[in-house]
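New to this. Help decode the following:
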Amino acid sequence: MSNPPPRPVIGIPSDRRWLEAHPFHCVGEKYVSAVLEAAGALPLLVPSLGSSLDLDALLATLDGLLFTGSPSNVEPHHYGGDPSAPGTLHDPARDSTTLPLIPRAIAAGVPVLGICRGFQEMNVAYGGTLWQHIHDVPGHLTHHEDASAPLDVQYGPAHAVHLVAGGLLQRLADTDTLQVNSLHHQGIRDLAPGLVAEAHAPDGVVEAFRVEDASTFAVAVQWHPEWMALDDQFSRALFQSFGDAARWRAAARNRSR
């Protein structure tokens, strides 16, 4: 009897946070579980070491990359934004790791999925800009959660997104509209060149995009499909498609050995 093929390896770049007096590299369990259970892959946590990390060596070992959400925001100097409000949480170690990693990974044919902060990172990495407090911009919805509510309420459906006809997400969803959660203060101001919108919120804000010239899966969403991913039909389909792309890369890498 032949052995089943090994699971593809999907890297998840970490947040660098201080816990008591020590720096730790952390990834939320919900992302790890979604990679393992919904994408059917082996999650590998990647430390955010900036220029100390050999990106080419890292990419040679990976079959996919998931860029996660986080309480921190991309530092605004990366996209020409105004200085952040006092008390804004930043993670320069993550910025210095993910921003150069994203375009290099996609150019190397590594499948990529971005979620929330990861969605914003991908836009910035390709030259786009962000609103830092989208709810303060006239004409826009309040996109952030009520932090005092229970988690199942915070991550519950918050608004519709309208999927672009003929786009990848519209084909995965087999519908024109999804109900999604919404837990973000920042949002896309200018969509970067080379990125193609896949979904919009009712106020017109881009909520999903793909990298137009990518040779493989390269998609990002502003909402959180990793939350209870197996319980949502579209979330399952999204992670399955991501995992399938990673499996294809893993098989190609194994054939080349």
User: Anything to note?
Assistant: Residues 33 and 226 are 8 Å apart (CA to CA). The first strand starts at residue 9 and ends at 13. The chain has a mean pLDDT of 94. The radius of gyration is 18 Å.
